[in-house]
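For the sake of clarity, the format in which proteins appear in this thesis is described at this point. The fold follows as a row of integers, each naming the local backbone shape at the matching residue. One such record is shown here in full, so that the layout can be seen directly:
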Amino acid sequence: MKSNLLNIALILSCSLVSSQNQIDINAAFNLDEKNVLVRQQIEYVNESSQVLDTIYLNDWSNSFSTKTTPLAMRFAEDYNTRFHFARSEDRGFTAISRIANPENEELEYSRLKDQPDVIRVILKKPIGPGEKYVIRLLYNIFFPSNKFTSYGITAFKELHLKYWYITPAVFDGEWHYASNKDLEDLYIPPAKINLQVNIPDNYVVISELDQITTAKFDETRIILLSGENRVDTKLFLKRIPIFKNIQTDDFTMVSDLDEKGLSSADKAIITDKITRFITENLGPYQHERLMVTQIDASKDPIYGLNQLPDFINPFPEHFQFELTLLKNALGNYLDNMLHTNPRKEQWLADGIQIYFLIKYIEENYPDMKLLGNLADIWGVRSFHAADLKFNEQYNLVYMGTARTNRDQPLSMAKDSLLKFNHNLANKYKSGIGFKFLDDFINANTMENALKDFIQDRRTSLTSIEEFKSFLESRTDKDIDWFFQDYVKTKKKIDFKIRRLRQTDDSVTFTVINKRKTDVPVSLFTLNNDSIISKTWLTDIDDEKTLTIPKNGIDKLVLNYDNSIPEYNLRDNYKSLKGFFFNHKPLQFRLFKDFEDPRYNQVFIMPMVEFKNIYDGLTLGGKLYNKTALRRPLNYKLTPQYATKSKSLTGSASLVYFQDFTDSDLFRITYSIGASYRSYAEDLFFRRISPGVLFTFRDKDDLRSNKLKFLSFRYLDISRDEDVNNISETDEPDYAVMNLRYIHSDDNLINFNRWFADVQFSKSFGKLAFNYEYRKLFKSNRQLNLRIFAGTFLYNKNPVGFDYFSFALDRPTDYLFDYNYLGRSEDSGIFSQQIIIAEGGFKSKLDPAFANQWMA
């Protein structure tokens, strides 16, 4: 009797829909045993031109089955120890009883060797183009704990489910299957879903699917859910009905998002405002219900706002709730309406989401500042950060990765992105890219095209190629640059103006494309900071010289409105008033600020430090030019007064970064530093150290933790003459040439790092090797190993002089690399400071030094 409910629905649906993909599920949940028994039928239409004799299925519930699945490896890559150290019963899996065809013939199937959450099924009879295959499955799902991905079974035996049942993989000439990596990116074709759930009577079901019927049998309820053109598979079983259904004129919002102090009426008003905005800009939602959960909000929050403590609220009342609901409603709307491959083409949906998030702020909060009401506070409003609009954060965040050479192409697969790029930078680059493209195309073309494309493709799979063709059909302008250079590469955008010449009625100047990136750039002409004209310049491969009428202009500016995510804005200005007006004035600010291209900024930070027991507390300040975004050239000057030694101490440094994007040579860092501090009572040292550091990493895999470093540095060290001969030498000054190669591969499961170091000085030459290894076993036991070996190439120091010798327990640190609090102490607590280097023993040994070799 319990199955009749579903059988009737299946007969009706099969008679009404014959060509649509269809999934029928009967799921009997056992919350006490943490599992569900699933009887399932999959009907899938072969829409390709090829004959299929083998099909692939996604079984992402089985991705939790062992510590070696792609999901487990992903956790390890992110240094997430929760899964590896979990109990076996907390990790879920799928137990398949049988897979058969409609004739009840069992089909041969197997799990892929390195992807146990993908199933390969061999059909008894091949299916041709336009034909459909039908398979029936019987299996048990044992749910994982929700502490790994937020989905699974909770400690209160409630279920939060997504991607939980077996689904067909997409075939469009090639199979598109992928393992679960906690990226929310299962790629499945839209299908009609009929879902019958058998649950205890004290639970409620929350789903986006339409509820058809409900029946009660003893202590069990049977609920039939159904929906057309579905890809989202979220299903919640809750003891307490915390989800609220808010009916609007557009669609029903189903959500458990909550906000302290927000009444039901205010929540309804905000929700109606958001659904109306989505419908007006993206078109009608094809389903009756849109689900937004607290899990969605935690995985895709409004970054920055979500980190503010409750007692700090510089934004309008309920602003965070409003934007959180909007962002996740946009994301879930696009998940259900725009069916691209989310593993390979997620940038399209991300870009649309951020594009309309920006538009919402422009329409509803046009004057909102990045710092909110804090921007009006005395002491804060003098900072450039107080001038920034709320929407400028997207460019700033993306530029944070671009300036550090950690940006990645938008077209890169989602599982190859750095976590920060996946969560933030690539989303923001895509969103501001659409704003850039919209500004270039103009005439509302972009907004209308996005809306029409989504509505046109809402029931079928689509691709970036189809989107590109669709957009090109809506404009006469060449937009190939967007899909080629902006999307497919990590090329930076950077222009500047040079060689300005004037006549009485015209201005001739040259625009230089510093990065050779094929993108347009906007040219503004100004008069007293008022915009006279705006022109788009295109086809600047290297440089382009232009002549324009003067017409009373006094300044030329590239990208004046900052609509282009440009790497460096500091050379975009050119004044027609002469050299003095092109010189940027100095600006002094207390504490670090955002970069202001109109000024040469110098920041001052008061400092109170304790470096060592000889100088005691040091008071002073730091003068530096490092902004919130990294600059290629950084300087720092830190004069300090030592209260105990009553002397002026401090340090200074100059660093220049040279990044490389198309080779495994990731960066070259040039530096020179100097410092002056105490090394004993009333004794000081001065260290000057110029150097160069080469950093290598795989240009195609920034997620890899494998790094290589090659450093060259020269250390010139002068010390006050030691009257008491604490260091047992009559030559306090020395110089050392130091070369070091480091190979590092830091991972949770397998950690290894080694370096080879060579030093040359007038009185000695040394070669050293250090190796560290750590292995985390499946049993959760851990092995740690460290090996050190060193030898003198030559040693001209007198016998018994160990200042440059290898140390078994406490290195002398003659290069002044370590932060010893009492480096000259022989007794007392400061003499016991442990620094694991060279011999690395924690106990004091005798003899303590080796002047020939040590291993």
